[in-house]
Amino acid sequence: MFPGLPPARRRLRAVRQQLRRRRRVIAALLTACAVLAALRTVAPPPPETVDVLVAARDLPSGAVLDDDDLVRRAFPADLAPPDLAEAAAGRVLAGPMGRGEVLTDVRLVGPSLADARPGETVMPVRLPDAGMAALLRAGDRVDLVATDPGTGETRVVASDVTVLATPTEVPDGPAGGALVVVAASADEATAVASAALAQFLTVAWNR
């Protein structure tokens, strides 16, 4: 192929010719590598994340949570809601949750529940009829009606209160009935607490 040249020179010349023939392909590859390196250099770092608890499935209001109801997921830190719940096993859910929804303290029955109802009083109310309590759902707006067992007189002690939680567990004991959690005005909360001591409480749905 290259007569008169030493073997080493012939091989070198052959390599040079091959490189000339493929210089466009090589140039394109080098350009692509340079672009890729530049993109990696200017690409923003991955967003900071925090671990959050989310519902593993649809959960009803009043559910007593256990470890199988929740899973941990990485969530963008700048989008995470405040008051994330850190531990929830054994806590009661104040309202229904959809699968994948982030759990916060205000979704649980407890002191933080009042944070979601500024200007209102969050209070438990024992309804003497557990079956009546079982008909309620979080988000219902009802009137609380008290009946005097001695005179039969009936009056509305709180109007248009919001049901926040309906625990599914009905405790045994002499008290009976079932507890629900409602949000009412301060004046209505006082009237409800007074009526609950000596009168029969029931609920009426309003529109």
TrEMBL record:
Has the keyword Glycoprotein been applied to this entry?
no
Give a Pfam family name. Answer: SAF
The answer, when asked if Chloroplast is one of the entry's keywords, is no
Q: Which positions fall inside the SAF domain?
A: 50-109
Entry superkingdom: Bacteria
Keywords attached to this Swiss-Prot or TrEMBL record, sorted alphabetically, are: Signal
CDD domains given in the database record: SAF_CpaB_FlgA_like
SMART domains tied to this protein:
SAF
Q: Which residues form the signal peptide?
A: 1-37
**What protein name applies here?**
SAF domain-containing protein
Q: Which organism is it from?
A: Nocardioides zhouii
Taxonomic lineage is: Bacteria, Bacillati, Actinomycetota, Actinomycetes, Propionibacteriales
